[in-house]
Amino acid sequence: MPAPGRPARPGEPVELRLDVTAAWPFRLRGASSDGLFRRRGAAVQRLVHVGGEPVVVGAVEVGPQRVRFGARAATSEACRAGIERMRFAVGVDCDHRAFHEAHRRDPWLGRALRAFPHLRVRRRPDPWEALAWAICEQLIEFQRAVAIERRLVAALGARCERTGLRDAPSAARVAGAAPAQLASFDLVQHRAITLRRAALEVARGRVDLGAADHETGWHRLRAIPGIGPWTVEMLALHGQGRDDQLPAADVGYLKLVGRLVTGNPRARADEAEVRGFFEPYEPWSGLAGEYLRVSAAHGWLTAAASARSKSPPPKVARRTPSSASSAGEGPSSTSSALTGAPASATQRASVAAGAAIG
């Protein structure tokens, strides 16, 4: 590793660091359940690939709303691209001021907004990763989905020998795998075929997940059997930064909204009713969903419902979704995190400068 200020010698890895001031109150989240984001002290590290070149990238808080990013790769260009990926993943550049100003007194979300202004949607540094994981998580318990994702990473993902970090398998790598191999990771056969077909479309350039025109890619993905609105909305929300997209067919949302609008703990809304419930929060419906999850985890929805119990239940618009039905596509009821608190949402570490990439 070159000393600070000294140019790297030929063949020596390049290191780049960048300090960023967050656009809105910020706290760095911790490791991910699939093992791709890892904690090292107060820093979060990740292996990504830029044009096939491995980049070890990390982030650490160095002060109030100050985040230091670091990257190590063979070229400075790859380091810069890796830092951009990590900035996107941790959401340091997200400015939620308008959303908070509009809804901080909302009966369902307001308390969570005031308590956790730093909350972000948990993103993936590569939209393909978000799409692949969404397919893996269709109609399956969360822990089982995580086990499948870890098997995919171990068998097909690249590994950094120096750090032990792993990256998710690329679209090309998944496209080159036989459906039987993918099924051996505990994916049901038809979902393994769906995953491989999606990988082929991305690897061959027929679907450009990084294009500015997201909708064209979504339309092409929807032509693949097994990919419906929920999967595309998960891609959009977690892989493309589209806070306006809500995976409305998530069983957790169906149950929560059903309970809130009827007062019946066993009620279940339909997808159109969920979209109608979140319509007042547009264009931040996906972000609003994250805050509804936090409100549920802390028991604040019960208090809000009690306060409103003397009033008639709110009328929820029954909208026909612009996309076709996603029946049989969303996650199972136990896969949703809507009733569980985010593991690192309220934690903040004091850090040493320069810990981002070790």
List the helices and strands and how they pair.
Elements: E1 14-21, E2 38-40, E3 43-50, E4 53-63, E5 66-73, H1 76-90, H2 97-103, H3 110-115, H4 127-136, H5 142-156, H6 171-175, H7 179-183, H8 189-203, H9 214-222, H10 229-239, H11 251-262, H12 271-278, H13 285-297, H14 300-307
Antiparallel strand pairs: 1-5, 2-3, 3-4, 4-5
Helix pairs in contact: 4-8, 4-10, 11-12
What's a concise summary of this model?
This protein has helices at residues 76-90, 97-103, 110-115, 127-136, 142-156, 171-175, 179-183, 189-203, 214-222, 229-239, 251-262, 271-278, 285-297, 300-307, and strands at residues 14-21, 38-40, 43-50, 53-63, 66-73.
Give a structural overview.
With 358 residues, this protein is α+β, with helices and mostly antiparallel strands. Helix content is 39%, strand content 11%. The protein contains 14 helices and five strands. It has helices at residues 76-90, 97-103, 110-115, 127-136, 142-156, 171-175, 179-183, 189-203, 214-222, 229-239, 251-262, 271-278, 285-297, 300-307, and strands at 14-21, 38-40, 43-50, 53-63, 66-73. A five-stranded antiparallel beta sheet has the order 1-5-4-3-2, covered by helices on one side. A hairpin with a 2-residue loop joins strand 3 and strand 4 (53-63). The radius of gyration is 21 Å and the shape is globular.
